[in-house]
Amino acid sequence: MRRLVIPLALRPAVGETERFSGPGLASSVIAFVLALPFLPVVLLLRHTGVLRWTIEARAHPWGRRGGPPVVLRYAVPDDRLDAALDELMTALARGDGAPVLRDAERLDE
Which residues touch 14 (CB under 8 Å, ≥6 apart)? Predict the structure, then answer.
């Protein structure tokens, strides 16, 4: 399991290097520079519990081409993030299909 720290809107662009050249690179840099002043505010809101972290576990039970992945998403407060990750990994290793995490809200898609 890995920790994904980039916003949900940027996730599809990760790994597609052809998008990050020429005008795409320039617009990405401009968007990053414009969003950078808001980073301390967002981190403060996460730390105070107003905004929660989202953790996600994906599984491809039928292989990557065999069907859609099974996705489990949870909203977790900042102080429970590491414990929730450990709890989720342990529950999935045990074979629980959709574990219930303490102090976490399951997000359905």
Answer: 6
Three-state SS at 85: helix
Q: CA-to-CA distance for 108 and 89, rounded, in angstroms? A: 19
Assigned token pair, 96: 């629980």
- Higher-pLDDT residue of 15, 34: 34
Cβ–Cβ under 8 Å, residues 84 and 105: no
Task: Express each pLDDT in 62-92 by its tens digit.
Answer: 777 777 888 889 999 988 889 999 999 888 8
SS3 67: coil
Which residues, other chains included, contact 66 with Cβ-Cβ below 8 Å and sequence gap of 6+? 60
Neighbours of 101 (CB within 10 A): 19
